[in-house]
Amino acid sequence: MTKGTINVKTENIFPIIKKFLYSDHEIFLRELISNAVDATTKLKGLTSMGEIKEELGDLTIEIILDAKKKTLTVRDKGIGMTEDEVEKYINQIAFSSAEEFVKKFEGSSEADSSSLIGHFGLGFYSSFMVSEKVEIQSRSYKTEPGSKAVKWSCTGSPEYVIEESKKKERGTDVILHIADDSKEFLEEHKVLELLNKYCKFLPVPIEFGTEKKWETVEGEVDKEGKPVEKEKTVPRIVNNTNPLWKQKPVDLKDEDYMNFYREIYPMTFDDPLFHIHLNVDYPFNLTGILYFPKIKKNIEVQKNKIQLYCNQVFVTDSVEGIVPDFLTLLHGVIDSPDIPLNVSRSFLQSDSNVKKISGHISKKVADKLEDIFKNSREDFEKKWDDIKVFIEYGMISETKFYERAEKFCLFKNTAGKYFTFDEYTAHVKDIQTDKEKQLVILYTSNTEEQHGFINSATERGYDVLLMDGVIDNHFINTLEQKFEKTQFKRVDADVVDKLIVKEDQLPSKLSTEQQDQVKPILEKVANTATYTIVFESLSETDQPMIITQPEFMRRMKDMSAMGGGYSYMGNMPDHYNLVVNSNHPLISRMLEAETEDEKGKLARQLFDLALLMQNLLKGEDLTRFVQRSIEIIK
After folding, report:
1. Any long-range contacts for 264-273 (C-beta under 8 Å, 24+ apart)?
2. pTM for this model (two decimals)
3. Is residue 384 within 8 Å of residue 295, measured between CB atoms?
4. Coil, helix or strand for 229?
5. Is 217 among the domain residues?
6. For strand 331-335 and strand 286-292, is the pairing parallel, antiparallel, or unpaired?
7. What's residue 112's pLDDT?
8. Does 265 share its domain with 343?
9. Which of 269-283, 336-350, 379-393 has the lowest mean pLDDT?
10. I want to staple 408 with a disulfide (CB 3.0 to 4.6 A). Which of 270, 341, 373, 521 is the partner?
């Protein structure tokens, strides 16, 4: 037996590691199993090179839980270690890295620690976050005469013990004596949860506990001649060693991709719309499968669904920085050993490969969308309502994606017809170009609430786009910057003849003096702090009064509600224009009424009708309007 002291000057190395090395203590199991996989993979590599001649046997990694002894063991049958290798890799290299980490840490703030950790190889020491003592028992694959297995143990202080082990099999056991403050890791369901989270697709079989299965008994049948099945207890293998993204796309069917989607998202009930299989080996290594989900109204709910793996080891489902922000709306798996990670495999370090990978994924997504659009436009249009948010988000945030997507991004009008940008411009150019040679694109955000305005526009032969998506306000701003001599105006932003001004206004039947007489009547029913009274010479067939909200004011408030950088607008009260049609007979009748009471009642009724059209008439005012309308009918 050999006792020794690790050559570190800092006595508090383990408390520091335990506190700052990992943001989440449960990662220890992933790190230990990853090491076991590495040891197994190296053994296979040596065999393929002819350095090992004998049969390797079963290479399954075992996770052994003993709640009574308060131990959790990770056992592999990989290359193992000699005593010299334990001394080198455990006592020297890793601990010197730990000491260097501590030195760096002592001069840094706690907030900086996560960026420092990435420079040090401390994976094994994550075990001390949950253990009061850690043992290693290892037998090397090397079979020199007199070679012995070795046992290393440490309680988290600089002192360690190395002695001979009775271990007979090749490989390494890492035995954790779980600390009292980490008893949750002695519960089977918790260990299984971690294995499913981090090790579900590792390339070496991982066994944990047992499960019951029904198996057909060969040669036995029941009275009805059916095969007899008996319940059998078998070792539980927790991982799929050959996940779909590692397989060749040519060998897979749509059904395989759908089944894999349900495997990684068992609680998702909506099937994805389509998928992309990534398979790149130059200039970086990248595999994966990305799915286009049916995007719902809440964009934030859609994020953090892409799972990042490094050589089939789960790293994180927060992939910001690896893919553009808009691509985080996709679901699926990305696996790359070329994405630089820190020791906890949880934070990205800045690297040129990340930008290349990000750009490649964005290009592949654009390729897939363009391919579907070109080869099956009808199918693309059917999917449009589900994917438009994703495409618009990408066009807003990524210039290169916009340049690709403007070929297949669609407009949908209130008649349910779809157009590309160029198609729509050609469709409305002749009729919706105003006298200033500006193309005016009308849109609605709610066909029911703005129905009257839509109807007024379509009666004049104008077309109205349906722009009711959660980010359409932002998207419209982007389009106005890209389109030449084009304005987007919501159909209820003004009376239609003011939205698209084609010629001089109709002459007004009300003189300026008469307008001055009407105005104080309206000011008694419409709060001037909220409504600006505006007289317009419209057609007699138009409404007598119309309430509009200026495009700029409404758009800024809508963007403020989404956190669009105009938060100050959200605190401003709503303000509207009360547009009075000076050519409508009912406005003239208001002046002809004999009493002020009659004038006021007519003004109130017309104002309430305008409010009703904009869904602004509510509460007590709505009740009075109904009662007044009944009296008028009587």
Report:
1. 264/307, 264/331, 264/332, 264/333, 265/305, 265/331, 268/293, 268/331, 270/294, 272/331, 273/383, 273/386, 273/387
2. 0.76
3. no
4. strand
5. no
6. antiparallel
7. 41
8. yes
9. 336-350
10. 373
59 lies in the same domain as 84 = yes
Handedness of CA 499, 500, 501, 506 (dihedral sign): negative
Residue 544 identity (one-letter amino acid): P
pLDDT tens digits along 386-418: 889 889 999 999 999 999 999 999 999 999 999
pLDDT at 94: 54
| Over residues 419-429, mean pLDDT | 96
Q: What is the mean pLDDT of residues 162-186?
A: 93
Which of residues 481 and 87 earns the better pLDDT score?
481
Q: Tell me how far CA of residue 112 lies from CA of 21, 49, 99, 129, 316, in angstroms.
A: 12, 43, 17, 20, 20
Could you tell me if 287 and 254 lie in one domain? yes
User: Where do the H-state alpha helices sit in 444-592?
Assistant: 451-459, 472-482, 496-499, 512-523, 551-561, 585-592
**Closest Cα partner for 514 from 444, 454, 590, 441?**
590
Domain count of the fold of the chain:
4
244-250 contact pairs (CB < 8 A, 24+): 244/289, 245/277, 245/278, 245/287, 245/288, 245/289, 245/333, 245/335, 246/287, 246/312, 246/335, 248/279, 249/277, 249/279
